[in-house]
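Appendix B, record 7
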Amino acid sequence: MGELSRSTRPVLFFDIDNCLYPRSKMVHDMMQELIDKYFVEHLSLTEADAKMLHQKYYTEYGLAIEGLVRHHKVDPLEYNRKVDDALPLDGVITPDPQLRQLLVDIDRSKVRPWLFTNAFVTHGKRIVKLLGVDDLFEGITYCDYAQATLVCKPHPEMYALAELQSGVSSAEDCFFVGQSYYHDFGKWLIIVADDSYINCHHAQARGWTAAHLVEPGILDPATKASRYQIQSLEELRVIWPQFFRDSTSSRVNQSSL
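Structure tokens (predicted):
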């Protein structure tokens, strides 16, 4: 997976965490525990203060690590090793035949599947390998923890980076699917979409076409994050049938939308 030259084919960007696998895998919860532990151990905080600061940085910057780098000079690569790369994912994230079939059914003469994540590259590639779909994406745009300045969604620079790396010709050729989930900081319960609610919204404002994945059991947002709202990735066959082989786009009944 890597950067491509300019192409006339559109790009279909997929977020990774809680998007390619369901929230029932509890990966997000495991990650929050490791982040809070990192705050406690490296900043000498109580558990309560760690949760508060974690919530503050997440809300202000979109990533806890950005606050840690800005205010505490934390090494983001060390943080990644002790948080994302330390997640016990073996046996939790397993090959997903339905997801693989969905991706196989995408017509690559019409669109290019691409990964788009706020995680570091090691975590993103680990997830898709465990899911058994690492061979079905043409590239990945990620938050590069090795850089002096971290760039992540929803900052405009991150969307511009995705456009550059994927070689897409224009924003109108960008299609994006991101997820929604509960973010629990103890006494705070925040509903966020694709890492934060605004990521899908910012993608659409940039001229991308976005689909907000809200799994059954998650409260619908008061206002839609983007033009499309879906409950499963299978519904991509219906909202964007032009990207699937003709025989596959009818597998989901349009009345389910």
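Remarks on this record: The two ends are 33 Å apart (CA to CA). Confidence is low (pLDDT under 50) at residues 182-195, 253-257.
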